[in-house]
Structure formats: C-alpha cells, structure tokens
Amino acid sequence: MRRCLRAVTLTTRRARDDEREAVATIHRASATAAYEGIFRPGGAFPWTQTVERWRDFAGEIFVAEVPDADGPIGFVAFDSHELHALYLLPDYWNRGIGRHLLEAAVGVSELWVLRDNFRARRFYEGHGWRTDGIQRQADGVIELRYGAPSTSQN
Questions:
Q1: What would the DSSP string read from start to end of 72-110?
Q2: Does one domain contain both 93 and 154?
Q3: Which of 22, 43, 44, 49 lies 20 to 30 Å from 4 when distance is taken between CA atoms?
Q4: Are 53 and 17 found together in one domain?
Q5: pLDDT over 70 (residue 4)
C-alpha cells in the first residue's frame, strides 16, 4: 500500500525473509534511542537475540519504506491478537509513519509498553489505546498492558 505522507511517499508491505536482519537493525537503532535512561547505562544491546527473535518470529512483519532510504525504515510485528513491536529509525520519528504501521497490524487487541517509555505511551494513547492496569516485569523494568480502542476497559 502506497501513501503520500507529508510530501513523502510511504510504502507499507509484508517483510521478506531476507529482510529479517534489516528489521533487527531498525529495532536496535530505535530501541537505543527510545530506551535511553530506562535500562541500565552501559548495557550492551542484545543483538544476537534480536536477530534470532525476528528471524524466528511466527507472526506477521510489515515494513515501511520511503524512496530516499536504502531499505526499510520501520516495521511492525504482530500476531492474531498482540502487537509485538513497532519501531522506526529515529530520523523518521514524528512523521506519521508509526500510525500507518499501527494500522497495518489488523486485528491486534493488546500490546505491552515499557512503563517509563513515555514517548511510546503517548503515541499509543493518542491512537486510542488504554492501559488496563496489568503490569509485568521484563528484563528488570516494568511493562504495562494496553488494549486496542475497541477492546480497552478504561
């Protein structure tokens, strides 16, 4: 699907198997910028586990592309009910691309967001997602569960 977005042509499509490492690269770049100050400083990004995660992911992965980039600039990963990840290269933040990736995740009803990732929480809340108050520990931080606009309890 092609869309013109703030004078940028955006293409969202299913990721190819040979793009799984590119997906991991986007994940690393975005997480490194977004999670600064949330995780312990000096911790190494878990590159090997991230590549394996996206190589073995059984759900759907869609990527976003723009003409001036050399490959995908963002992705969304989801299964029949959960949004597992939505990441964009930091240079493409705040351009509306995340919204298009979120819309590509048809049928998802829940996701987990780091409690201290206020940027992501604002993004999802701005699109109608609401936390239901359920929390879990993950890698030494707290995540909040969010429900999609039509399934939220709050």
A1: --EEEEE-SSEEEEEEE-GGGTTSSHHHHHHHHSTT--E
A2: no
A3: 22
A4: yes
A5: no
Distance CA 43, CA 97 (A): 29
Q: Please, is 94 exposed, middle or buried when counting C-beta atoms within 10 Å of its C-beta (0-12, 13-18, 19+)? A: exposed
pLDDT of residue 80: 94
Residues 22 and 96 in one domain: yes
The model carries a pTM of 0.89
Nearest-angstrom CA–CA distance, 34 and 80? 26
CA 20 to chain centre: 14
- Note whether 73 and 115 are same-domain residues: no
Region label for 4, one of left (φ > 0), alpha (ψ between -120 and 50) or beta (otherwise): beta
d(C-alpha 51, C-alpha 60), whole Å:
16
- What is the C-alpha R_g of the chain? 15
Are 18 and 57 part of one and the same domain?
yes
